[in-house]
Design brief:
Blueprint (H helix, E strand, L loop, with lengths): L15 H8 L7 E4 L5 E3 L4 E5 L2 E5 L6 E8 L2 E5 L3 E5 L1
Antiparallel strand pairs: 1-2, 1-7, 3-4, 4-5, 5-6
The structure holds zinc ion.
Zinc ion binds next to loops.
Length: 88
């Protein structure tokens, strides 16, 4: 092992197994924490504002946007900048 740990750095493909386990889990039961107020609750408990292209999920505690999801002709988009973490 090098002193700076650079021999432990791999590209994202090396995390494929772990990421695949996470992203096939039942998402509505996962616990999500709001970046704005710190409230933690199930994804399924967030307030949904649906639109034809996707969804905006807001915190039930402070009404901040926690998750945005959209399905466009260019792909599926997931913006979770309003969340501190997601725990399965
Ligand atoms: Zn909040």
């Amino acid at each position: 092992m090098t002193e700076d740990g650079s021999d432990l750095v791999l590209d994202g493909n090396a995390a494929a197994g772990l990421l695949q386990e996470i992203f096939v889990a039942e998402i509505t039961n996962a616990q999500i924490q709001c970046e704005s107020c710190g409230f933690t609750g199930a994804v399924g408990s967030l307030r949904l504002y649906a639109a034809p292209m996707g969804a905006v999920l807001r915190c039930t505690h402070c009404n901040s946007i926690v998750v945005r999801a959209a399905h466009t002709p260019h792909g599926r988009w997931l913006d979770m900048t309003g969340a501190r973490h997601l725990r399965f």
